[in-house]
Amino acid sequence: MSFNFLNLEPPVRELMISEIEKDIENGKLYTSKRFTEEGKAAYPELLKEAARTGTEESLAESINKPEYFKDRELSTSKTGTTYSKDVSDIAYLTFAEGEFNKYYMRALCIRANTEHKSLEIYRAKEVDTSRAESASKIGDTIDPTAFLEDLRNLETNNFKYPASGWSGGANSGLSVKL
């Protein structure tokens, strides 16, 4: 099931692209550890294209290629042994959803600040099992200035937001709306 981004309009898309370009310029664009070198090189343009005309699903489809996304990775056991394992069948999708949603939320923060509005947390994607913590956040308002700061300072896709206090994570299905 795909996300229902309620405010995904041309001005929001333009802001998404601007935020992506800022991250690229500042060397802050997060790339999956599961990308191949080709994937890392192609990803910035694929992300901008998805922001320009697509969705999280089109982004996922564009990176789900053997030349871009690895199907095996190294892992370390609790005893310190390194071994090779299969990458989750949906790792590319989880990555694409999280990154597309991140830039969508950043764009909405900018728009909310410009229009002096608040943001409301909502379920943008239905999930099989809703976490109680996620469900309790639905309907809450969030300060766009603090949230934008959090989103811009993420160094990974760990979804920890200290300034705003929101903790919607990967696979939560949560997003924000005006």
What's this entry about, in short?
The chain is an alpha+beta fold and 178 residues long. The chain is built from 6 helices and 5 strands, in the order H-H-H-E-E-H-E-H-E-H-E.
Task: Walk me through the structure.
The strands form 2 sheets. A 3-stranded antiparallel β-sheet has the order 4-3-5. A two-stranded antiparallel sheet has the order 1-2. The protein has 178 residues and is an alpha+beta fold. It is 46% helix and 12% strand. The protein has helices spanning 10-25, 37-53, 56-63, 91-114, 132-137, 144-153; strands at residues 72-76, 82-86, 119-123, 141-142, 174-177. The protein starts with 9 loop residues before the first helix and ends with a strand. The model has no long low-confidence stretch (mean pLDDT 90). It is globular. Strand 1 and strand 2 form a beta hairpin.
Task: Write the topology of this structure.
Layout (H helix, E strand, L loop, with lengths): L9 H16 L11 H17 L2 H8 L8 E5 L5 E5 L4 H24 L4 E5 L8 H6 L3 E2 L1 H10 L20 E4 L1
Antiparallel strand pairs: 1-2, 3-4, 3-5
Helix pairs in contact: 1-2, 1-4, 2-3, 3-4, 4-6
